[in-house]
Write a structure and sequence with these properties.
Chain lengths: ~200, ~200
DNA sequence: TTGCATCGTGAACGATGGTTCACTATCATG
DNA sequence: CATGATAGTGAACCATCGTTCACGATGCAA
């Protein structure tokens, strides 16, 4: 996608691919990128050999060197708090304990103020947003027609698509069971949905 | 020391909150958690003072200490490679540079070998998996009925629900447009779908 | 006043980690 | 055969980092 093609040249050797797999495994096990010596110990080879492997993988684009530490690219997730309720407006008002944190791809909403929200109900199933899904939201007061937003209706948070119903601005559910909510004065847009997470555990 | 987010025990001092904010800032700037000396340099104080601050923030639950490194909670995304094709057991078939990496919540498939796959087509829309969605898959050869799996049919990767069709084991689409695929000899399970990611950018 | 927690200085220790160097072995290729 | 890429041994260098210790200053509460 973005920084993709570092080396179109050679494919990896069996051994090199093995090292990459081990690097993934060790990263997953510890939650931290392994050191050169960890990799060396895993294969029972010398540190220098492991170091050469890692350096090669970096040159080929399979690994990423940042600040003298090699790691898998994209391991820097931005922590997004999963809020039980919708954070309303000013940050000072929202002294709410997050339900947890979600590591989010850094290119989602660069610099924007993000939070996450667990979706209740089935009003958006036709848009692929199911009950218990977690949506990542960028705090913003405005959105364009067609975008999926988090709106505050009577103090309750709702995920709907912004659109028009009979010429009037409205919140459109993506489920024939529900009817559009025509926008009135008391409706406020809390944010714009950037992404959807679902765990099938 | 692992439980209880921010509101535990005493509230933070002004200074401590300052340190926490700086820690967030430095983490965002570098893409890596700052060292104790980085924090010390930022405030132009001694290393020991910065170290005491960080240790306190960890004890209060604002930071997370793991393997002698303090960092923000939730930034511990396990990087999962997004593969263009399905990595199938034998290393030969997987000579492919990942399309990108996805930071994944660490409790998804602890220690398992994970990869991600971009879904093509609309055969699973009724299960909330749309075209271009990214599914996180745990490499495993077996799965239970009802679980969503990645299967290799004629060398092509397909996401389907495992189940039965007329008493026979089959791959069931979640879209009335498509018909079940009765399992034959040449079908292999590549992995089990753990989660779904969607970006609405 | 006496504690106690907070916040700072200055220095040092020990461990870990990245990096490099010299040397050897294997193997495919031109 | 010669060459270059790959893969490994063994050892060492040096920077960085977490951690600790001793000590001083401030401010607040019992």
């Amino acid at each position: 996608m973005r920084d993709m093609p570092p080396t179109r040249g050679k494919p990896l050797t069996d051994r090199q691919h093995e090292v990459w797999e081990a690097f993934k495994l060790l990263t997953a096990r510890r939650g931290l990128p392994p050191s050169v010596r960890d990799v060396a110990a895993h294969f029972r080879i010398q540190v220098s050999a492991a170091h050469r492997h890692l350096r090669l993988l970096v040159r080929r684009g399979w690994l990423e060197a940042r600040g003298g530490v090699v790691r898998l690219p994209g391991s820097s997730g931005v922590p997004v708090p999963i809020m039980g309720r919708v954070p309303a407006g000013a940050p000072r008002e929202t002294f709410e304990v997050p339900e947890g944190y979600l590591p989010c791809p850094p290119d989602w909403g660069r610099g924007q103020d993000l939070f996450a929200l667990r979706v209740r109900g089935d009003s958006m199933t036709d848009a692929g947003i199911l009950d218990q899904d977690v949506v990542v939201v960028a705090k913003t007061g405005h959105a364009r027609d067609g975008e999926i937003v988090v709106a505050l209706v009577d103090g309750e948070a709702t995920v709907k698509r912004l659109g028009k119903s009979g010429g009037e601005p409205a919140l459109l559910p993506a489920n024939p069971k529900y009817k559009p909510i025509v926008l009135q004065g008391e409706v406020r847009i809390a944010g714009k949905v950037l992404g959807v997470f679902r765990s099938l555990a």
